[in-house]
Design goal:
seven-stranded antiparallel sheet; Naphthalene 1,2-dioxygenase Alpha Subunit, Chain A, domain 1; globular; about 25% helix; two-stranded antiparallel sheet; about 250 residues; single chain; alpha+beta
């Protein structure tokens, strides 16, 4: 190109990207004029500080291929009316009627569910896997699990003794890749008596139950006879997710 008259490398630079870090996660925004992260992420900044997420360490990771559209993965994560039928292990520890939503509009949606005594965590045994993610965690949060969808591609599950998250990537309209990691306090990883598998197996079983029903939903929705129906009052979060998705698409 040095032989092309009038060509200047400065006229063809690499595109700049906005980069920010939050609770150990790195976010990249390739928009030409991105909204400042502190503004876009305002509802979440400080909300989960008590869990000290950035200090946790990865204890397990897995990738799932789901034969369904990525939006159905988010929709499934956003409601638990299906839990009594699909997730017997989950519903025993965290009944679907036990919680409350604290983010109900916009790009960040979700809330908490309460552990049924004597369960101490969302594990196969109901026991804690090891150390709390923060030894100073407030007492009320030691009996709760928080679940959030964070636009556009993150689902975050927070428990008193571990955290797992899901990074959702649309491969095609019919195929979604879900990368998941389980995060633990460093003391749990170093403790030979800690039972990390108790949490890993709990969510691997639950995840695979979800992927099965999501794939079945995709088959139904792609049928030529499919007609969408209304949401119930108990499906306010999926409805809010739909509204936010449509808003984002309209802005593009």
């Amino acid at each position: 190109m040095q032989e092309v008259e009038g060509f200047r490398k400065d006229d063809y630079p690499l595109h700049r990207a906005g980069v920010a870090e939050w609770e150990g996660f790195v976010f990249v925004n390739i928009a030409g004029d991105p909204v400042p992260f502190a503004e876009a992420w305002a509802p979440m900044i400080g909300r989960l500080a008590r869990y000290r997420l950035s200090g946790l360490k990865v204890g397990h990771r897995v990738s799932y291929d789901v034969a369904a559209n990525w939006k159905l993965v988010f929709q499934n994560y956003s409601e638990c009316l299906h839990c009594p039928l699909i997730h017997p292990e989950l519903n025993q520890k965290l009944p679907f009627t036990s919680g409350n939503n604290d983010l109900i509009e916009g790009s960040f949606l979700g809330g908490y569910m309460e552990l049924t005594p004597p369960n101490l965590s969302a594990t196969m045994s109901g026991k804690a896997v090891g150390a709390l993610v923060n030894p100073d965690l407030p007492e009320e949060d030691r009996r709760r699990a928080f679940y959030y969808t964070l636009m556009p591609n993150l689902m975050l599950s927070i428990h008193p003794d571990y955290v797992n998250y899901y990074l959702v990537t649309a491969i095609t309209p019919e195929l979604t890749r879900v990368d998941s990691e389980w995060l633990f306090h460093p003391d749990s990883l170093a403790d030979p008596n800690a039972n990390l598998r108790d949490a890993i197996e709990f969510w691997d079983v639950t995840n695979r139950q979800d992927w099965d029903i999501v794939e079945r939903s995709h088959q139904g929705i792609t049928s030529r006879r499919y007609e969408p129906g209304p949401y119930s009052a108990r499906e306010s979060i999926p409805a809010a997710w739909d509204r936010e998705y449509l808003r984002l698409m309209a802005a593009m």
